[in-house]
Backbone:
DNA sequence: CTTATTTCTTACCATACATCAATGCCACTT
DNA sequence: AAGTGGCATTGATGTATGGTAAGAAATAAG
């Protein structure tokens, strides 16, 4: 239980195992069923979730009732609205499970303590934030400059695994197009002998 | 010289003034003329820039030669490709001056030292990163879900000052539309008695 | 002050993508 | 086996935004 999280903290985070044992007591592991909502718009979301197994997503719903997917979080990813936590503001997203998922519930104290205990962990955590920012900037760059097709091709390159696990309409939502449009894009690509999965 | 940066570190960053004096020796202030390029695609950008006065921007150029603006940085903002620094990868952006600008050139060591010296500064810095992430996520949400008009209205609300200082074609570029389209959007708004500046 | 250059607007047409609606497909139910 | 619901595909059509080109307006340059 919470095996991935443990190795994640050690390998990626650089947190010495001694400290993990010291901190682990405050951790909970949660099982979330497909479709279950973890956090709703307007709530104050106090926790981050580290996905042990399964797939979570965050998304907004516009006035027309349409969902727009902000982020996918498969295994070994964090998802949260930490801004909501840090600034004590109501969340702007929904958070739910795309697949049956087990996730580690991480509260602010855990991170604070981990940061206090290990300088390495602090640095790596900082790096990860920067990486996240870079990632978001790249996505913005695609959204303001690239066609639906290019965005889709980019998605395939970045998340080949998600491609198989996620319904198309969610990918469309993530890309900022309609499912119908994505279907047509795919048709076009297929006509030009493009093989995504091979 | 570097007055804003000093008060920024103190007020927003929470860095005790003692430490500032200790660190300030490594700081340079740079004058950048309108249009001058600070960093180009493919370079490794070693520095962050804190804008004392003026306006910087980061942008990409696509295959068609079109610019896409990733970020504006007016007074008291940071701009950089810290990912490029941290991961030692070539930058994906250009960085140049929209107006004549004076900026503080901040290297990695400065931040590292500041973080080492003050826990408060470290925490605030962390918060700022999260704030940046939230900000980028909101922009993504608009790009995947909102019309050109809505995005423009949002821009006005968020950056009323930039509205006046930046040529329209740059705003269009930031919003992911053409200058012509922005012009039409504005015409529409004007026809409906919308007054952005009053 | 006059001329260049850049930026903004407008009009006309082209295109990418959205919308709506119908159909087919598959996995589950019962 | 037939019914149900969620997804994907397809076609017809609508709409927002892009492309091009020209002129007006603003800004910079000489």
Residues:
């Amino acid at each position: 239980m919470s095996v991935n999280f443990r190795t994640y903290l050690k390998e990626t985070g650089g947190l010495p195992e001694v400290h993990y044992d010291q901190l682990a007591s405050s951790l909970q592991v949660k099982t979330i069923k497909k479709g279950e909502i973890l956090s709703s718009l307007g709530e104050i979301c106090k926790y981050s979730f580290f996905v042990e197994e399964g797939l979570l997503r965050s998304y907004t719903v516009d006035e027309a009732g349409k969902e727009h997917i902000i982020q996918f979080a498969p295994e070994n990813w964090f998802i949260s609205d930490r801004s909501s936590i840090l600034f004590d503001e109501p969340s702007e997203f929904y958070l739910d499970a795309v697949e049956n998922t087990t996730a580690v519930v991480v509260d602010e104290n855990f991170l604070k303590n981990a940061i206090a205990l290990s300088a390495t962990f602090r640095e790596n955590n900082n790096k990860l934030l920067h990486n996240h920012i870079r990632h978001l900037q790249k996505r913005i760059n695609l959204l303001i400059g690239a066609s639906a097709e290019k965005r889709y091709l980019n998605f395939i390159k970045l998340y080949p695994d998600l491609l198989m696990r996620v319904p198309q309409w969610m990918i469309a939502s993530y890309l900022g197009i309609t499912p119908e449009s994505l279907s047509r894009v795919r048709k076009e690509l297929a006509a030009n002998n493009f093989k995504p999965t091979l």
